[in-house]
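Entry for the shared binder. Reason: the reviewer on the internal report wants the predicted structure included alongside the sequence.
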Amino acid sequence: MPLITTAPTLLTERLRLDAHKLDDFESLAAMWADPEVVRYIGGTPRDREDSWGRLMRYVGHWALLGYGYWAVRDKISGAYLGGIGFSDFQRTIIPALDAPEMGWTLVTAAQGKGYATEALRAALPWGKEHLPGDKAVCIISPENQPSLALARKVGFSESHRSEYRQNPIVVMHCPL
């Protein structure tokens, strides 16, 4: 199978998942600077430098691994709503993650509207067809009840508990 070097477009009823672009930087940086967005993701708002590196990693994953993060956009307005996708961040977690890691982050205004469920239900079948192996993993703070419920809703189940950067995490697996 040839390497996919940029995010393919996935469409849902309300969303368009496509490649991150340079024009997404301001929206991405604003999202990661929002204390509500990062409350369960390290707890510290990110600066522009961190967000710039994140944008580069999102694009670079596709170029080097053939999978990565999609920009989540409102299908009608094109507004940037967040990011979702698969990654290999080489995290220092014991035991090491044994499959591509799935993650999702939405701007505060888009949370609680079913967008993450809709985006995950589009991305997971793509993963089944294109990812190496037969599963995906995700890591979630045990305090993040909405994300834990969402992960279970789309097929993830708890594998074990661990720590990442001295914070407790729930490691979940999803068969693809």
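Summary line for the report: The two ends are 18 Å apart (CA to CA).
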